[in-house]
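Interim report, section 4.2 (structural modelling).
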Amino acid sequence: MIFLKSENVSYQNIKTLHNIELTVKKGEKLALIGHSGSGKSTLLKLIYERYSDNTALVPQDYGLVNHLSVYHNVYMGQLNQNSTWYNIVNLVRPWQKPLERISIILSQLQLEDYLFRPVGQLSGGQKQRVAVARSLFQGGNLLLADEPVSSVDEKQSQVVLRQLCNHFSTVVLAMHDTQLALAFCDRIIGLEKGKIVLDQPSHKLASQDLLALYAE
Ligand code: ADP
Ligand code: MG
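Predicted structure of the assembly:
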């Protein structure tokens, strides 16, 4: 599914990822953990560059258009799966089918009251769930999500991660919460200064082990 061999990434001649070797099998659920600046987002972007076909992405900054409604932002998840005329019709005056599908996804994420609300009027946690809803509407074989629950509360984090993990068979999440990473992912990759320093099945790890990766 994902096969990276001796991959290096630099920003302005500063090496950010060093000699990354990573194989992910179909059906695996992976969490990337590590300090801020350790390279999680860069690694997710690298995977997305190599494997963008049939891949849904939840970027760290959500990638939403603030002056457009929740419906329109979520609909954009399927823009490239439909013809131009179908998209134009459904962006101007939505048909029942996408409207129903999007409404169901929104209600699963407790966003049902915001269907035609401009995204710019939502809270940070609500915006983050709109980005999650867009990925669910898009669908695909692989989900790459960059800290998808960083702005939502504990209870909603569980709901969001359950939705994502049920909907996509292969999942790579950058996570800041080690307990949630252990609960929802079956494999943990630890990053430190752009290198993979840990690669273990979750059942062999305790939250305590993972906290060490965050220690200064
Ligand atoms: P994380 O997601 O784990 O916080 P990032 O992948 O965002 O880490 O960043 C890894 C390193 O690369 C950091 O030192 C960061 O400053 C640097 N970096 C990330 N994006 C850019 C960029 N667009 N230009 C220059 N440096 C960057
Ligand atoms: Mg990041």
